[in-house]
Amino acid sequence: MTERQADSLLRADLMKRLMMFKDYGKDALLLAVLSYNVGTGRLLGYGKHPKSRLLRKIESGDRNFYREFVSFCRYKGKVLRGLIKRRKVEFALFYIP
Fold first, then answer.
1. Is residue 74 a contact partner of residue 83, using CB atoms and an 8 Å limit?
2. In terms of CB atoms within 10 Å, which of 54, 75, 79, 83 comes out highest?
3. How far apart, in whole angstroms, are the C-alpha atoms of residue 97 and residue 84?
4. SS (HEC) of 57-73
5. Are 36 and 21 in contact (CB under 8 A)?
6. If you ran DSSP here, which 8-state letter would residue 49 be given?
7. Residue 90: what pLDDT?
8. CA angle at residue 88 from 95 to 77, to 5 degrees?
9. CA pair distance 52, 12, nearest whole angstrom
10. How far apart are CA 25 and CA 17, in angstroms?
11. What separation in angstroms does the CA of 11 have from each of 6, 14, 16, 59?
């Protein structure tokens, strides 16, 4: 796969995820990027799993959701410092006040 094909595939997938979260307004890009990394099911809920606290907080109109966003930093139940750093950078890049 060429770099151009990979970029096109990435952009198409991101647009699909943006459409899933379009109802969240200016937080749609932030949620799309997070769902790309952790999966849409972890955010939207699936089976017995409820909707994430992050989405519930955004839906209630509370824009103070930094802690909930950064809390998506576990792998196999363990908190990874690299994921914490990644979430902080993503929040800084994609959060629109």
1. yes
2. 54
3. 21
4. HHHCCCCCCHHHHHCCC
5. no
6. B
7. 95
8. 120
9. 25
10. 13
11. 9, 5, 9, 26
CA distance 65 to 41: 19
Q: Please give the single-letter amino acid code of residue 19.
A: M
At 94, the amino acid letter reads F
The SS3 of residue 50 is coil
CA distance 70 to 17: 19
pTM, 2 dp: 0.86
Fill in the amino acid letter for 42.
R
Pure H helices in the chain? 3-20, 28-38, 40-44, 53-59, 66-70, 81-94
Tens digit of pLDDT per residue, the chain (97 long)?
Answer: 999 999 999 999 999 999 999 999 999 999 999 998 898 999 999 988 899 999 999 999 999 999 999 999 999 999 999 999 999 999 999 999 8
Which H or E element spans position 74?
strand 74-75
